[in-house]
Each structure stands twice: as structure tokens, then as C-alpha cells.
Amino acid sequence: MKYLVLTGLLIGALLTLPLLVAALIVAGEPAFGITGWQWRDFLFALFGVILLVSGLAVVTMRDIIRCGLAMIVCFAALAGLYVLLGAPLVAGTQVLVYIGAISVLVLFAIMLTQTKAAPTRLVFQSQAPAAAVAALILAFVIGIVVVGTAWGDVSTVIGTATDTLAGVLFTDYLLPFEVVSVLLLVAVIGGVYLAKRDEESGG
Amino acid sequence: MIADSLDAYLILAGILFAIGTFGFLARRNAISMLMSIELMLNAVNLAIIAFGAFVAELTNDASVIALMVIAVAAAEATVGLAIVIAIFRNRGTPLVDEYHTMNR
């Protein structure tokens, strides 16, 4: 049953991609004949629901491998939201880096650290109810702040032109770009050093 | 309608951040906690991109900052998972409440 649900989620995420293309073609038309609702609104609702359901699955499911797979669905829904927000380069990077690299890394780490008893044991710590209350309060406070703030004139989505973005990235942000590349090198070397077996002690 | 309102995206990002917070505080498995951190980073990224999409002065800067956040998150995931694997090799368990050597 759980496999069916998860397979359904994955197939749903895959099916939304052609739907996204179709929606971009017919953008501006009222959707399903409902006035005021355009296709992008339905896409927002769809991606939002997928995002929240798979996010909840990541933190609540018992089998940690399924948590990792639900995380992939969550990242795919986020990539869709980035496309809706007019940032296609960030959406592509999200798919490449998060789905392609980080999720695979997490899945490998899960397989390396899984013990036989792990899925049958308790998933949550004893402070889980308190954590749930704290998270609910956090979401509530963020909601109040967002709704209560006057953001000024924010009513239309402004798309990001990729060539302009490249110009900004390699002029104004050249130093942070290089620092990030050095940081990635340091992280790779550090990761290899931390994870390699200690030869003197026989590992 | 909702796809063109900043509030909707920010509330979505806030709820995702809260879900990540709950996962980080409540899960016992160290890798689950790292996955929750990834959720929180993604929520913040969504908020950054949403601000960039709705405020004209921030459009390019927001995309650049989001790309930087993605790169730093990749570095963090690499080092974090390496640390978890190193601890697992020493202690034989991925559950954080069994790392209690300093408590004895």
C-alpha cells in the first residue's frame, strides 16, 4: 500500500512536466472555465500540495529509504515552483544539484548506515510532541508576519533573463563565485578525509 | 491569482521551513536530521526566489544568492554525511540518542 502511494507520487511528479509545458503554452487562458483562475494558479496549487505532502512524508515516514525518495519528489515540486516564478536557471540547477547529486548522496549514506533493526525501531525521539508544537507555532508566526507586512506593489512575476543573470554573476558576484568554488573543493577533500577508513587501526 | 501573490509563496516557504524544523527536532536518525536541514534550506531558497520574482530591484541578485545557497548546501551535505558515516563506523548506530558517551 505504501509502495503504491509512493509510486503514485513519483508518477504524478513525472506527469506534471508535460502538463507544465502545456500550461506555459496556454498561459493567460482561464483554466477549466473558472474566471480569474489561470493555469499557473492550478500549477501553483498542484506543486504546493505535492511539496507539502512529500515534505511531511520526509519527516514522518518510518522507512528512511522512502523518506529519501519522498525528498526527491519534494525537490522536483520546488523546481516546478521556480519555473512558475520565472527563474528557469535556478530550476535547472535545483534538478541537477539537488535531485541529481544531493539526493543520491543521501540515499548512498542511508544504505551505508542502515542496520537491520532500524526500520522496526522507534522513529521519533521523546521530545517529538514538543517539537510538533514548536513547529506549528513557528509556521503560525511566519504566517502572521507574512500576511501582516505591507510588501508594496508586488503583483506581477518578473522573469529572470539568463544572460543578464550570467552578467551579474561574473561581474558583481565574481568574488563570492570563486569563494564558493574553493569552498566546494575544501568540502570534497574534507568529506573524503572524514569518510575514509583509518588504516593504522584497521578500520 | 494565487500564483501571482507573494504571500502565497512566502507562506508555502514558511510551512516547509516549519516541517523541516519539526523533522530536525524530532527524528532519531542522524541522516533524517540532515534531510530535514535540506528541507529548511530549500524553504529559504523558495522565499529568496519569490522575493526576487516580485521585486524588480532584486531579480538578478536573488537568483545569484539562491545559486550560492545551493552550492553551500551541497558542501554541507557532503561534510555532514561524511561525519555521520565516520560516527557510524565508530558506534555502529545512526541514531543520535545513542551517542551518549559524554553523558556517562
Structure description:
The complex is a heterodimer of chains A (203) and B (104). Chain A is mostly helical. Chain A has two domains: 1-116, Four Helix Bundle (Hemerythrin (Met), subunit A); 161-203. Chain A contains seven helices and no strands. The radius of gyration of chain A is 21 Å and the shape is globular. Chain A starts with a helix and ends in an 8-residue tail after the last helix. The model of chain A has no long low-confidence stretch (mean pLDDT 85). With 104 residues, chain B is mainly α. Chain B has a single domain (2-103), classed as Helix Hairpins. Chain B has helices at residues 6-26, 30-54, 59-91. The N and C termini of chain B lie far apart (58 Å). The model of chain B has no long low-confidence stretch (mean pLDDT 91). At the A-B interface, α2, α3, α4, α5 and α6 of A face α1, α2 and α3 of B.
Short characterization:
The complex is a heterodimer of chains A (203) and B (104). By secondary structure, chain A is mainly alpha-helical. Helix content of chain A is 71%, strand content 0%.
